[in-house]
Amino acid sequence: MKIVLVNQYYPPDAAPTGVMLQAVAEALSAQGHEVSVLCSAGGYGGEKPETRIKNPDEGEEERRQETRDRRQEEVEGRRVEEEEVEGRRVEEEEVEGSKVEGRRSEEEEEEKRQEKRQEKRQEKRQEKRQETGDRGQGEEEEGEEEKAGSAGIQHSQVQVVRVGATMFGRGSFVGKLLDYGSFYAQVALRLSGLKADRVVVLTTPPFLSPLVRAVTKVRGGDHAHWVMDLYPDVMVAHGMLGGGGLAHRALAWLTRFGFGGKRCASVVTLGPDMAERVEHYLEDGKTSPWVPLWGTGGIADCGLRNADLKREEEDGGRESLGRIEVRGPLEGEEAGGSGAGVVPCGPLVLMYSGNMGLGHRFSEFLSVAREMKEAGGRDLRWVFCGGGKRRKEIEDFLIDHPEAPVELRDYVAADELEAHLRSADVHLASLRPEWDGTMVPSKLQGIFAVGRPVVFVGSETSSIGRWVVESGGGWVVPPGDIGRMMEVLAEAADRGECARRGRAAARFALDRFDRAGNAAEVASLLGHA
User: Distance of CA 270 to CAs 228, 234, 276, 289, 470, Å?
Assistant: First the structure.
């Protein structure tokens, strides 16, 4: 099946939707589909990607000539090297011959040298003729391969087509809208010239689904959808749109239209609460399968093994397996007491790491941090790392309460993320209940992958809340319930309980958040006949 995937971002852009899509695109290709990705040439942050991948349908003759020139240069280079080596060998043989047969006359030696040179020249001419014949055959074969490639017959790789949309980035609302609008136009233009069996669309930018349904109606083929953020529900939760108003009803109709029709092959979501919301937009009798996302930034395949977990459980949790329990010191924290087999000492490190967007909550964490410090209670260390709209809430708290044990830091590099997540004893996560099902943050996947428990402030009916309860890998605190938060922190301070929940989290990650398995499952749902 010829499948075109449409999303505004794709690696080397760092946008999470593009990173996730890459794994699914590769899985679709591995399953035998002919896969192309239609994405923007503009970067996630407003910059161009460091690596640009050409449209495979353009510049075929130039690429063939470049290939021939490169091969010719390689052949000439090898020929020069061989001549130099051969010349040195002939000279060595001549010197050696002169030593052994020094009694021969100069005429005899010169005759012998001439014969040898003649033989070498004959051999080289023969090799050259053979090489020329092989090269000609190779160029013919490559020409056939390139013709196949230009026709899109490539199952071993994903073809990436980057279109020229504006790239103001996410710094301003107007710039974001301009990026969206120019990408819509480019997608409509490109898809109108493509013949695909199926077009799979994500939700960056919003409301691509009705555009894709309309274009595929004209061009043929069907459409499928992988929902990352559910619109217009996200806009209502954000406060940008009033629920039930005229604008909301119009946008809801667009979503229903995009997901509808007999040619809609599948609508795949990220979790149970999102699937429930999406089904309100589907025609009667249709359901939405869901598959969780997986970790990113080098922790998708962090190497946890069931054998390690089983061995640790047999030891009664008395010894720490570095990969599961031990945390290294954070910057500014003295090392010591956190090596393998040693129970971590010092303050209990509670960490929030990632996006501090409008859908998250911080008041419960900050209130408890202030109250415990004022009461001279438990020794805790609260670390917040990341950025977003609600970062200012923590900045203001630090100005008002400089004595509180709260630290604010920036994002870490992707190659440092795994070690960064392991540096905490317990992680913090939150989601405002009105955002349930509009998105499913992938924060939990990375936390569980490194074997750490989580304190989640949010609803037990959300996807994150359900996974925390089901796994036993942490605690769920209802929004605003400070008393329950105090109880949870008392349990988390028990190192044995903390380690037990961390092991449960790691087991759940192995079973439910596996990158290869989940990407293949999404690919199967999107690519089924």
Answer: 7, 15, 11, 8, 17
Cβ–Cβ under 8 Å, residues 320 and 342: yes
Cα within 13 Å of Cα(328), Cβ side: 11
Average pLDDT, the chain: 78
Residues 242, 238: Cα–Cα separation, whole Å: 10
- pLDDT tens digits along 343-357: 345 689 999 999 999
Q: How far out from the chain centre does Cα 274 lie?
A: 21
Q: How many residues does the chain have?
A: 529
Sheet of 34-40, strand order:
159-163, 34-40, 2-6, 198-201, 222-226, 264-268
User: Cα(390)–Cα(169) distance, rounded to whole angstroms?
Assistant: 20
User: Strand, coil or helix: what is 280?
Assistant: helix
Q: What 3 state SS string does 67-117 have?
A: HHHHHHHHHHHHHHHHHHHHHHHHHHHHHHHHHHCCCCCHHHHHHHHHHHH
Q: What SS3 class is residue 34?
A: strand
Give the number of other Cβ atoms within 10 Å of residue 133's Cβ. Answer: 10
Nearest to 354 by CA among 380, 388, 330: 388
Measured between its terminal Cα atoms, the distance across the chain in Å is 8
Kindly state the tokens that stand for 10: 């794709």
Backbone φ, ψ for residue 525 (5° rounding):
-70, -35
Note the pLDDT of residue 219: 86
Alpha-carbon 24 to chain mean position = 10
From 249, 160, 170, select the one nearest 205 (Cα to Cα): 170
3-state secondary structure 201-263: ECCCCCCHHHHHHHHHHHHCCEEEEECCECCCHHHHHHCCCCCCCHHHHHHHHHHHHHCCCCC
Contact 421, 450 (CB under 8 A): yes
Write the CB contacts of 455 (distance below 8 Å, at least 6 apart in sequence): 350, 426, 427, 428, 429, 474, 475, 477, 485, 488, 489, 492
- Cα gap 136→113, rounded to integer Å: 34
d(CA 320, CA 312): 7
Which of 52, 21, 38 minimizes the C-alpha distance to 188?
38
Per-residue pLDDT band for 320 (boundaries 50, 70, 90) equals very low
Residue 6's φ and ψ, nearest 5 degrees, are -120, 120
Rounded to 5 degrees, what angle do the CA atoms 323, 328, 330 make? Answer: 140
Give the Cα separation of 422 and 330 in Å (integer). Answer: 10
Residue 506 tokens, joined: 């790691």
Cα separation values, 14 from 11, 37, 453, Å = 6, 16, 27
Residue with tokens 């970067």: 43
Ranked by mean pLDDT, the top range of 66-80, 214-228, 362-376 is: 214-228
Task: Give pLDDT tens digits for 260-307.
Answer: 999 999 999 999 999 999 999 999 889 999 999 997 655 545 444 444
Question: Please, which pLDDT band fits residue 122 given cuts at 50, 70 and 90?
Answer: low
